[in-house]
Amino acid sequence: MAHGSLFAILLRSPWWISLGIAAAIVAAARTSLPSPYFVFGAMGALPFVVICGIAAWRQLTAPSPTRVAATIEKVAAMSWRDFSSAVESAFAADGYAVTRLAGPAADFAVRKDGRTTLVSCKRWKAASVGTEALRDLSAAQQQEDASAGLVISLGALSEAAQRFAKERGIVVMQGAALAQLLRNLPAAAKPAAGGPTRR
């Protein structure tokens, strides 16, 4: 679904918001519709109940702040070869067909359910991401007729880049979202208490 659609926004919001909307629809149907038609009116709440369930599951299984920090630290220390392999494996594990791209604008094309997303992640360790990389991705998205664009980065986006991403519907994956994608990335081993620390 589109990143800015109502259901997409609700999926990113606390689960109880969707539940509240569903309850409001049921209450409105109860007070405004004759009894024989109440069930039909109340069925309008069903999509919001489903969204509530999905959002609750996502939030329940979201990585902890400690896990997010550990993942980001490990990702920051990776070479491009290791990081790109981890991203490719993560998308494949989530059911996407992944194709590596040779162009500078996007590194992968990931396909699922008839939708193609171009993924740019080669600048993942850049201190900041400006509009140039996003413009290149947007142009490649139009050229390839892709459904969406995705940028993976540890660095902050400039204000101009944030506005551009919002205008063009480009999703920026950072922090918890990146840790969730790379949830199967092995955690760094902790040294034994009192034992030597390996570098």
Shape: elongated
Return Rg in Å.
21 Å
* Total of DSSP H or I helical runs spanning 4+ residues: 9
Q: What is the count of β-strands?
A: 7
**N-C termini distance:** 44 Å
Total count of domains: 2
Overall CATH class of the largest domain = Alpha Beta
What structural class do you assign from the helix and strand content?
Answer: alpha/beta
For the largest beta-sheet, the strand count, sense and barrel status come to: 5 strands, mixed
**How much helix is in the residues?**
40-55%
CATH architecture tag of the largest domain: 3-Layer(aba) Sandwich
Question: Main sheet: which strands, in order across?
Answer: 1-2-3-5-7
Order of helices and strands: HHHHHHEEEEHEEHEH
Low-confidence stretches: 188-199
Overview of the molecule:
- The protein has two domains: 6-60; 65-181, Trna Endonuclease, Chain: A, domain 1 (3-Layer(aba) Sandwich), CATH 3.40.1350.
- It contains nine helices and seven strands.
- It has helices at 6-11, 15-32, 38-42, 46-60, 65-76, 80-93, 131-143, 159-168, 175-181, and strands spanning 97-100, 108-112, 115-120, 128-129, 148-152, 156-157, 170-173.
- The strands form two sheets. It has a five-stranded mixed beta sheet with strand order 1-2-3-5-7, with helices on both faces.
- A hairpin with a 7-residue loop joins β1 and β2 (108-112).
- The model is unreliable at 188-199 (pLDDT under 50).
- The chain crosses the membrane at residues 38-57.
- GO terms for molecular function: DNA binding; restriction endodeoxyribonuclease activity.
- Pfam families: Mrr_cat.
- Keywords: Membrane, Transmembrane, Transmembrane helix.
